[in-house]
């Protein structure tokens, strides 16, 4: 029994040390890139909100380390000067590290002001047409993904 108590104290001490040495910060170092553009490269920011398949969530300094998959939608970045930047992403990953650094790697991304609502509606219409005419499981899955991206794109452009 004494060994169990000693182990639990050791575990608690190690856990506490891990939390203390995690290096919680009052700011986040933020990197955000896609195949076509680098939006942030190690910038210091206040907060970022991301669309995720496990539910949209906000990331602040001191966030628990996390790895998540981005779903189509808008990433909202709250910069230290109070400005807000919104970027549409088609998909990607977000990594939150123990040192409060955050990395977003998007498959494709564009700032909201670069989106054309008419073109987004055309993309959605074409994807819906492809979905209704798809005959194989693979074609149906690919078209369903395109519809999801198209819907998110239209919503972001409105």
From TrEMBL:
<dbReference type="InterPro" id="IPR036771">
    <property type="entry name" value="ATPsynth_dsu/esu_N"/>
</dbReference>
<keyword id="KW-0809">Transit peptide</keyword>
<keyword id="KW-0472">Membrane</keyword>
<dbReference type="GO" id="GO:0005743">
    <property type="term" value="C:mitochondrial inner membrane"/>
</dbReference>
<dbReference type="Pfam" id="PF02823">
    <property type="entry name" value="ATP-synt_DE_N"/>
</dbReference>
<feature type="domain" description="F1F0-ATP synthase delta subunit C-terminal">
    <location>
        <begin position="115"/>
        <end position="156"/>
    </location>
</feature>
<dbReference type="InterPro" id="IPR001469">
    <property type="entry name" value="ATP_synth_F1_dsu/esu"/>
</dbReference>
<dbReference type="InterPro" id="IPR020546">
    <property type="entry name" value="ATP_synth_F1_dsu/esu_N"/>
</dbReference>
<keyword id="KW-0066">ATP synthesis</keyword>
<protein>
    <recommendedName>
        <fullName>ATP synthase F(1) complex subunit delta, mitochondrial</fullName>
    </recommendedName>
</protein>
<keyword id="KW-0813">Transport</keyword>
<keyword id="KW-0999">Mitochondrion inner membrane</keyword>
<comment type="function">
    <text>Subunit delta, of the mitochondrial membrane ATP synthase complex (F(1)F(0) ATP synthase or Complex V) that produces ATP from ADP in the presence of a proton gradient across the membrane which is generated by electron transport complexes of the respiratory chain. ATP synthase complex consist of a soluble F(1) head domain - the catalytic core - and a membrane F(1) domain - the membrane proton channel. These two domains are linked by a central stalk rotating inside the F(1) region and a stationary peripheral stalk.</text>
</comment>
<comment type="similarity">
    <text>Belongs to the ATPase epsilon chain family.</text>
</comment>
<keyword id="KW-0375">Hydrogen ion transport</keyword>
<keyword id="KW-0007">Acetylation</keyword>
<dbReference type="InterPro" id="IPR036794">
    <property type="entry name" value="ATP_F1_dsu/esu_C_sf"/>
</dbReference>
<dbReference type="GO" id="GO:0045259">
    <property type="term" value="C:proton-transporting ATP synthase complex"/>
</dbReference>
<keyword id="KW-0406">Ion transport</keyword>
<keyword id="KW-0496">Mitochondrion</keyword>
<dbReference type="GO" id="GO:0046933">
    <property type="term" value="F:proton-transporting ATP synthase activity, rotational mechanism"/>
</dbReference>
<comment type="subunit">
    <text>Component of the ATP synthase complex composed at least of ATP5F1A/subunit alpha, ATP5F1B/subunit beta, ATP5MC1/subunit c (homooctomer), MT-ATP6/subunit a, MT-ATP8/subunit 8, ATP5ME/subunit e, ATP5MF/subunit f, ATP5MG/subunit g, ATP5MK/subunit k, ATP5MJ/subunit j, ATP5F1C/subunit gamma, ATP5F1D/subunit delta, ATP5F1E/subunit epsilon, ATP5PF/subunit F6, ATP5PB/subunit b, ATP5PD/subunit d, ATP5PO/subunit OSCP.</text>
</comment>
<feature type="domain" description="ATP synthase F1 complex delta/epsilon subunit N-terminal">
    <location>
        <begin position="28"/>
        <end position="109"/>
    </location>
</feature>
<dbReference type="InterPro" id="IPR048937">
    <property type="entry name" value="ATPD_C_metazoa"/>
</dbReference>
<keyword id="KW-0139">CF(1)</keyword>
<dbReference type="Pfam" id="PF21335">
    <property type="entry name" value="ATPD_C_metazoa"/>
</dbReference>
């Amino acid at each position: 029994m004494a060994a169990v108590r000693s182990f639990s104290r050791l575990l608690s001490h190690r856990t506490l040390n891990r939390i203390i040495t995690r290096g919680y910060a009052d700011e986040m170092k933020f990197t955000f890139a896609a195949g076509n553009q680098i939006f942030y490269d190690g910038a210091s920011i206040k907060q970022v909100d991301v669309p995720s398949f496990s539910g949209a969530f906000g990331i602040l300094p001191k966030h628990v380390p996390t790895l998540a998959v981005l779903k189509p939608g808008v990433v909202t970045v709250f910069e230290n000067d109070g400005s807000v930047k919104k970027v549409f992403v088609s998909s990607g990953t977000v990594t939150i590290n123990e040192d409060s650094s955050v990395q977003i790697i998007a498959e494709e991304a564009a700032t909201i002001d670069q989106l054309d609502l008419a073109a987004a509606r055309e993309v959605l219409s074409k994807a819906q047409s492809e979905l209704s005419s798809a005959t194989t499981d693979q074609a149906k899955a690919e078209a369903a993904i395109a519809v999801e991206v198209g819907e998110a794109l239209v919503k972001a452009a409105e």
